[in-house]
Amino acid sequence: MALAERVRTGPPKVGQTPADEVWRENKWRLLRYRPTVAKADRWRTPILLVPSLINRYYVLDLAPGRSFVEHLVAAGHDVFIIDWGTPTAEDRFLTFDDVCHRYLGRAVRKTAAFGPDGVCHVLGYCLGGTLATIYTAAEPAQVASLVALAAPIDFDHAGILATWTRSPGFDIDALIDGFGNVPWPLMQASFHMLKPTATLAKLVGLLDRAWDDEFLDGFLATERWGNDNVSFPGECYRRYIGDLYRDNALMRDTMRLGGKPARLGDIDCPTLAVTFGHDHIVPAAAATALLDRISSPDKAQLHLSGGHVGAVVSRKAAAGLWPQLSRWWAARDTDAARGLGDDAGDDVDAEPAAAPAATTAP
Predict the structure, then answer these.
(1) Residue 198 domain boundaries
(2) Active-site annotation holds for 126
(3) Of 91, 157, 308, 333, catalytic
């Protein structure tokens, strides 16, 4: 039986695309994936991938054939990714500015330095997309384009998580003062509560397809990632909940980063918001608000079927999402392409964004 064999062989291998560490600081590091195509056939502008702070980076490099990174490298892109590492007790004092301004800023600058134009494309996934958006709003100079992949921006529409974090019983100060870093089992339990029957449904699906080697490879790799979480640095989490979930600072133009205003209206680079029809973690309304506020004329929404994780790592993603993102970046690889404006969205099956809403500077 295929499932029994998998139990005997142990957990699946993940994160197998060859990469080199080009920077390390505290717990985090920056990886650069080794090219597989001739230099003359590679795209100019490097791509920085920013995973969620509380999940392992290898979700974007899950396994051969199920790796977004592998696909991009094969298409000739110069790909970098942040591995946030594992925070320890001392990291309870890391601030939001430490993570989003100092660490992410360093990753952007290091990645941009590898390109001939001194800029890089930035893709942020989930919370990583929120961080990438805030950084781009405050420090736009070296960001050639922004892709917000299932990234919450408008926290008034962030669903049940917003309801929970805004309730009087959610004492953020007591949580941080008591634990230091927010324990990953606590956060994982919260996500499980969003869809309580999901675990049972997965087990039923697993038994139904226990004979299918290809299905098992993907299922077990995804489950390994889903149960390999990390804790959230305490002080960073305190501001994350306060500024975003409770104050919705991005939408109110009150967000600041490194002492600078981080206004969505200051984002004028090409921007793509990717949403999924069955995403129970980041509702589409929370993600697409980004496009209503930015000033860039080159903006679009790519809306696909699937859930928050499955739509990014599945075989279907390899035929749909991944090549569309690759083409979107390729179309913006030169100065001439960056000036395509409203027509630039035609290289993905995207919906043009509405005109930006009027904003008032604080």
Answers:
(1) 2-352
(2) yes
(3) 308
